[in-house]
C-alpha cells in the first residue's frame, strides 16, 4: 500500500479543507478536521478511479515546498 501526504487547511470563516498537493484538484472539506479527512478519502478514491493510473508519484512532506505547506494546520498520510 502507498500513501500521499495530505494537508488540512482553514481560513477564518471557512470550514476545514483538505488537499493532496501531488494531486491537483483532489480536495475535500468538512466542519471538522475528521470530516475533511473522511471526505478526502472518498475524493482520493474517485480521483484515482477517474485518472486511470495516470497520477503523480507520492512525495514525502520533506520533498514539498514551503509554499505548498504554508497555511497547513496539519499534514497526514492518506493511504491508497
UniProtKB/TrEMBL annotation:
Q: Which superkingdom, per the lineage?
A: Bacteria
User: Sorted alphabetically, which InterPro entries does this protein's record hold?
Assistant: HicB-like, TA_system_antitoxin, TTHA1013/TTHA0281-like
Q: Quote the SUPFAM superfamilies the UniProt record gives.
A: TTHA1013/TTHA0281-like (SSF143100)
Span of domain HicB-like antitoxin of toxin-antitoxin system: 4-72
- Could you identify this protein by its name? Type II toxin-antitoxin system HicB family antitoxin
Specify the species: Nitratireductor aquimarinus
Amino acid at each position: 500500500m502507498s500513501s500521499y501526504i495530505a494537508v488540512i487547511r482553514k481560513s477564518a470563516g471557512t470550514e476545514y479543507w483538505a488537499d493532496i498537493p501531488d494531486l491537483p484538484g483532489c480536495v475535500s472539506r468538512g466542519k471538522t478536521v475528521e470530516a475533511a479527512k473522511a471526505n478526502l478519502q472518498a475524493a482520493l478514491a474517485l480521483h484515482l478511479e477517474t485518472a486511470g493510473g495516470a497520477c503523480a508519484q507520492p512525495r514525502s512532506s520533506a520533498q514539498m515546498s514551503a509554499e505548498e505547506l504554508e497555511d497547513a494546520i496539519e499534514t497526514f498520510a492518506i493511504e491508497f
